[in-house]
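Chapter review. Work through the record for Retrovirus-related Pol polyprotein from transposon TNT 1-94 before attempting the end-of-chapter questions.
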Amino acid sequence: MENLLRAKGLWSLVEKGFEEPCEGTMLIGTKLEQLEIARTNDHKVEHYLFRAIDRSIFEQVLDRRTSKIVWDSLKRKFGGNDRGTTI
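Structure tokens for Retrovirus-related Pol polyprotein from transposon TNT 1-94:
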């Protein structure tokens, strides 16, 4: 999954996430455009994650707000893959 998200240029959303502005904050111009792009990309990541998991797991993480939170939940549940490759 990491390779797919890296290839799509979306891995940073899983690693770092993105911040929603505080309620009532007015954004204009490029800030608003950047937020819309971040939201759209976050939805793309969620889509890829949800397509890759079983329905029973999907139902457990469906209510998470961002792809980073979904990823972190899956990582906690199944453990991460921190193994390195040695040559």
